[in-house]
């Protein structure tokens, strides 16, 4: 039996058909589980259905393991669901990676410290030493892993050792400026979020603000996306944009961009750790 009031989040994707919400809500009601909030979306192009349900297990409800076993047998199988049942109160363990620009790292650390981001941060990893003291101030272990053309595979092995040892759920690239290998992206699929400093698909690669200035755009932005082996091509989680004009220098755009990057990355991390993001091919469904 579950402790009264245990909160869970159920996420589902499956071929769309009649009766999915009815089956899920009936399953929960029969087991003394009360839905707190629920959202769903049927994608008519992919033919897939997506559901996120936050519920509380009342007195007499089965344990998490019991709910999972029942749901697998009673509902998930007949609808061919891809699904997960998450403990809503468990804080995800987030490893942050950074290179030379620390604004996103600093912002995430502040939001974590003030409780805005319900996460644990067991480690900070960088290919430079610049943020060693910032990590120390927050009492978070700092791992310096320099990467060059001749040692990328070995250094990525070290990263994966830390991910394993620290039971990391999510890796956040907070302006980490090295391209991760295809092998690493495969191993960590759906568990690595990057902040790209442009409004993708515009201005991929390094130095997007200079590209934007050269092009003379009137809006600039930032994009948080899951990392895949295709640089800057991963499923987009969140974006934001700001108006700019002809009077602004590339440095002005960089300064405006920093604030946008902070907000977009923090939102994307929060959506992910609250199980609000479901993959839909190379796109996402985000139940904000
Ligand atoms: N597999 C992936 N790895 C990374 C991605 C990604 O989308 N897929 N995003 C980058 C972040 N990024 C843009 O957002 C980015 C970072 C770095 C480069 C780049 O060309 N780097 C050069 C080295 C630059 C340096 O040493 O300063 C390189 O790796 O040759 C492009 C885009 C993070 N990783």
UniProtKB/TrEMBL annotation:
Taxonomic lineage: Bacteria, Pseudomonadati, Pseudomonadota, Alphaproteobacteria, Rhodospirillales
EC number(s) given by UniProt: 3.5.1.10
Name this protein carries in UniProt: Formyltetrahydrofolate deformylase
Domain Formyl transferase N-terminal: 93-269
Native organism: Azospirillum doebereinerae
Catalytic activity: (6R)-10-formyltetrahydrofolate + H2O = (6S)-5,6,7,8-tetrahydrofolate + formate + H(+)
EC class: hydrolase
Catalytic residue positions: 232
UniProt GO MF annotations: formyltetrahydrofolate deformylase activity
Pfam families xrefs: Formyl_trans_N
Keywords: Hydrolase, One-carbon metabolism, Purine biosynthesis
Pathway: Purine metabolism; IMP biosynthesis via de novo pathway; formate from 10-formyl-5,6,7,8-tetrahydrofolate: step 1/1
Main function: Catalyzes the hydrolysis of 10-formyltetrahydrofolate (formyl-FH4) to formate and tetrahydrofolate (FH4).
């Amino acid at each position: 039996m579950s402790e009264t009031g245990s909160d869970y989040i159920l996420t589902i994707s499956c071929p769309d058909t009649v009766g999915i919400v009815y089956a899920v809500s009936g399953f929960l009601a029969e087991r003394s589980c009360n839905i707190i909030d629920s959202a769903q979306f049927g994608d008519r192009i992919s033919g897939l259905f997506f559901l996120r349900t936050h519920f509380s297990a009342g007195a007499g409800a089965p344990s998490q393991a019991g709910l999972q076993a029942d749901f697998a047998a009673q509902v998930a199988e007949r609808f061919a669901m891809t699904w997960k049942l998450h403990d809503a109160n468990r804080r995800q363990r987030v490893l942050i990676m950074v290179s030379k620009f620390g604004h996103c790292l600093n912002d995430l650390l502040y939001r974590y410290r003030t409780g805005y981001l319900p996460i644990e941060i067991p480690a900070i990893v960088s290919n430079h030493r610049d943020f060693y003291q910032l990590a120390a101030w927050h009492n978070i272990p700092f791992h310096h892993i320099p990467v060059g053309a001749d040692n990328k595979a070995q250094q990525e092995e070290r990263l994966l050792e830390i991910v394993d040892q620290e039971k990391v759920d999510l890796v956040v690239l907070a302006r980490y400026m090295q391209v991760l290998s295809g092998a690493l992206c495969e191993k960590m699929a759906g568990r690595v979020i990057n902040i790209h400093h442009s409004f993708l698909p515009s201005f991929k690669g390094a130095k997007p603000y200079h590209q934007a200035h050269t092009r003379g755009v009137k809006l600039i932005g930032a994009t948080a996306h899951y990392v895949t082996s295709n640089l800057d091509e991963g499923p987009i989680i969140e974006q934001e944009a700001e108006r700019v004009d002809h009077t602004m220098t590339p440095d002005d755009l960089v300064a405006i961009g920093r604030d946008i990057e902070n907000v977009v990355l923090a939102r994307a991390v929060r959506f992910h750790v609250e199980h609000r993001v479901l993959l839909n091919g190379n796109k996402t469904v985000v139940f904000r």
